[in-house]
Design a protein that fits this description.
- This protein is α+β, with helices and mostly antiparallel strands.
- The chain is 51% helix and 19% strand.
- The strands form 2 sheets. Strands 1, 2, 5 and 6 form a 4-stranded antiparallel β-sheet that branches.
- Strand 3 and strand 4 form a beta hairpin.
- Helix 2 packs across helix 4 (52-64) and helix 3 (41-48) packs across helix 4 (52-64).
Length: 89
């Protein structure tokens, strides 16, 4: 579960249910990146209807699994409308 002891009880409840939908969100995000190319959470949200927070949490998991990485330019991560841009590995 990805909650802190200081998080409200609603976050703990949501965290306990996250395993039920996290895989689906990852698949949606990966398919979006395949179809539309490198994108930030804002653009992925517009395309998929997922909330930016849902996307950001799944991106951390996808990065750890080495399925996505930051899009880099001159050694710096690219941003799109204030969101880091990811691409498929």
């Amino acid at each position: 579960m990805n909650t802190r002891t200081t998080d409200p009880i609603t976050s703990h409840h949501a965290g306990a249910r996250a395993h039920k939908f996290a895989g689906g969100h990852k698949a949606i995000i990966l398919e979006c990146l395949r179809a539309y190319g490198p994108s930030g959470a804002g653009r992925i949200s517009q395309i998929t209807g997922l909330h930016i927070t849902q996307i950001d949490r799944r991106m951390c998991e996808l990065r750890r699994a080495m399925q996505v990485e930051y899009l880099m330019h001159d050694g710096e991560p690219v941003q799109q409308a204030g969101c880091l841009v990811y691409r498929l590995c």
